[in-house]
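To fix ideas, we reproduce below a protein record of this kind.
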Amino acid sequence: MLKTIVVGLDCEEFSERVIKTLQTLHLNSLTKIILCHVLPTYENYGLEDGDKPHPSWESLYQHREQQLKAYLAQLQGSVIEIVAGDPAEEIIRLANIYQADLIVIGTRGLKGFKRIIESSVSGQVVTDASCSVLVVK
């Protein structure tokens, strides 16, 4: 029986697929689901695209929080965690804190050289997590 599941969401279009996949699992009503999103650190926010205007870090946080709250209604027994840092490291850290039995995460489907350059969060989570990982394509 799965007692605790950490769900890493990036709040992009494939987050819907992750939620739908999660809903297909036969979960006990006592299963705790932690919906998490990892923001860039405040200091690093927006440094890659210096020419483009960015919303404030606080408004980004609020926007992501609203998106995650929309999923709360669909998933009984869930809570939200929004943290800042490296996505793979933070998802694994939360899984360790909550002693998760499973991590559910999406993948962007990167291949070849692009996967090496942009790094794969899901690949790093699969490699480094101490619990099972379900990767949703």
Summary: Helices lie at 15-24, 57-72, 87-97, 112-118, 121-128.
